[in-house]
Design brief:
Elements (H helix, E strand, L loop, with lengths): L1 E6 L4 H10 L7 E6 L5 H5 L4 H8 L4 E5 L4 E2 L3 H5 L8 E5 L16 E9 H6 L1 H10 L6 H10 L3 E3 L5 E2 L2 H6 L3
Parallel strand pairs: 1-2, 5-7
Antiparallel strand pairs: 3-6, 4-8, 5-6
Length: about 170
């Protein structure tokens, strides 16, 4: 498994601690990706790191997971998911399955679990970056930009595979 850790200004001692934590594993490769000051994540906030990484990662496919994401199946099952030629696959946003006020009505996904075919995404990455900057004041800025950009060109993950937003789960008193 190859992990890319996007960062802006992680100290060398902190990087070494992270690397030490997985040193015993022969199955994990960690690479640190320094985000320049001109990236969305540095300019607008860390939630945009996935958009930045979509444009620069040197791989064909990537799985982006937010800290609030829960995968209810084998991660291999998610990774091997057939995307039917679409650039991204994601779980439908359970709180806003048809979007929300201020964004077009239609199928709406959560960006907390996002599988991306980067060769397709990178073809139109400049357009995605522009949308993200334009929508920085939206209700859910990064997620809204991703939804508008990929509009009807995304694959819904099976609800049995992925759910999202543990914040809402805990807020509900569960």
């Amino acid at each position: 498994i190859h992990f890319f850790i996007a960062h802006h200004d992680i100290s060398t001692p902190d990087k070494n601690e992270i690397l030490k934590s997985v040193a015993a594993s022969t199955e994990i490769v960690l690479d640190f990706v320094e985000l320049s000051p001109s990236t969305l994540a540095v300019e607008l906030g860390l939630e945009y790191a996935k958009v930045d990484l979509m444009g620069i990662l040197p791989v064909k496919r990537a799985l982006f997971l937010d800290t609030r994401a829960v995968i209810e199946a084998s991660i291999n099952e998610v990774w091997r998911m057939e995307m039917e030629g679409r650039p991204v696959a994601a779980a439908t946003d359970l709180s806003h399955p048809l979007g929300h006020e201020g964004i077009r009505e239609g199928p709406y996904f959560s960006a907390s679990i996002l599988l991306a075919n980067l060769s397709q995404v990178q073809e139109k990455h400049d357009s995605l970056t522009l949308k993200a900057r334009k929508m920085k004041n939206s209700k859910f800025p990064c997620q809204d930009a991703l939804n508008v950009h990929f509009e009807y060109d995304w694959m819904a993950m099976d609800g049995k595979i992925a759910s999202q937003d543990l914040n809402g789960f805990f807020d509900a008193g569960a």
